[in-house]
Design brief:
single chain, about 90 residues, mainly alpha, two-stranded parallel ribbon, Rossmann fold, 2 strands, elongated
Length: about 90
């Protein structure tokens, strides 16, 4: 089970996994959003009968520059991607 925002890249990854003889399914979405984190785990359970291990490695560097130039939106995007997504993935 793989997940990320970019559906085209996810589909390419799934195709590569399948060509190697393994099985995979993708679900595109934003790891910062709780309904997506829940749906990703539920999909793994439905498709494969459970979830044995999770690799929650979403992360971004965020906007570079002086703190005084950083917008709240930039800050929240970085925290959401780097921290909240890991929390939500572990929660479900």
């Amino acid at each position: 089970m793989v997940g990320a925002r970019r559906e085209t890249e996810l589909n390419s990854l799934v195709e590569g996994i399948r060509q190697s003889g393994d099985e995979a399914r993708a679900l595109a979405g934003d790891v910062r959003h709780e309904p997506y984190a829940k749906a990703l785990v539920e999909c793994a359970i439905q498709e494969y009968g459970g979830l044995d291990i999770a690799l929650n490695n979403a992360g971004i560097l965020g906007v570079s520059g002086a703190t005084t130039d950083l917008t709240l939106e930039d800050w929240e995007n970085t925290l959401g991607t780097n921290l909240t997504s890991a929390f939500l993935s572990a929660k479900y």
